[in-house]
C-alpha cells in the first residue's frame, strides 16, 4: 500500500493515473502479496491471504500507525495505480469478497499489473525529458503497447513475459537517462549496480551519476549532491539523505524516499512529498 506519509501532488504529464487510488481498489496489496515476519513486518502472511488489518471496506485498520505497529514495509510499497486498474478495469468493479471465485485470479494479476504500471511510470517520465527526444518515438510505442497489455483479460495478463518486456524497455530508459545527463559539466560517475551498502558518501559529488540498481542501503548520503542522478532501481532503504540535493533526480519514486531517512534540509524535486518520519 502507498505510504500514509505521501500526500498526492500533481505530476507533470499524465502520471496521475499511475498513482495509487486506494478508494478504487479492493485492498489488493493487502491480499495478493506475501510478507515475512521481520523488521518490516510484524507477522508472516502468505500470498492470497488477506492481512488481518484489512477492514471490510478494503481499508487498512492501522494506516496511521503502520510504522509504530511493526508494518514499516507497507509504508514503502507503491502499486503505481495497478490496484485500481485490476479492481475497476480487469475485473469490472466486482470485488473478491462479493465474488470469492475471482480472488485467486486477482491475486495472480495484481503483481504483474504492478510491474506493467511501474514501467509506464518510468516511460512517462522519460517522455518528459526534452534531451531524450531521440528515443521519444520508441518510448511512445512502448507506452502504447504496454498500456494495451494492461487492458487485456486476466488470463492474458498473467501469461505475459514481463522480464523480457522489462529488458526491452530498460534499453530505452537507459538511453533516455544518458541523453538527459549528457549536457552536464564534468565527468559523471558510474555506480550502476554497485554494492554501496553502508558507504560513507557524505557530501559526495554525485551530480549526474548513474546509480541505477545500486545498493545504497544504510549509506550516508548526507549533504550529497544528487542533482540529475539516475536513480532508477536504486535501493535507498535507511539511507541518510539529510541535507542532500535531489533536484532533477531521474526516475526517483516516492517509495524510495519513504524508505530513506532525511530532514527538512533535504531538497526534493517538485511533486514529491517529504515523509513525516524524516
Task: Describe this protein's structure.
It is a single chain. Helices cover 30% and strands 0% of the residues. It has 278 residues and is an all-alpha fold. Helix 2 (82-90) packs across helix 3 (103-127), helix 3 (103-127) runs parallel beside helix 6 and helix 4 (136-150) packs antiparallel against helix 6 (162-181). The radius of gyration is 19 Å and the shape is globular. Mean pLDDT is 93; it is low at 1-12.
Quick take:
With 278 residues, the protein is mainly α. The protein is 30% helix and 0% strand. α2 packs across α3 and α4 packs antiparallel against α6 (162-181).
Distance between the termini: 19 Å
Stretches with pLDDT under 50, minimum 5 residues: 1-12
How does the helix and strand content classify structurally?
mainly alpha
Strand residue percentage: under 5%
Q: Strand-and-helix sequence, N→C? A: HHHHHHH
Beta-strand segment tally = 0
Helix content: 25-40%
Specify the biggest β-sheet: none
Write the layout of secondary structure elements.
Layout: H1 72-75, H2 82-90, H3 103-127, H4 136-150, H5 154-158, H6 162-181, H7 254-259
Tag the structure with descriptive keywords:
about 280 residues; 7 helices; disordered N terminus
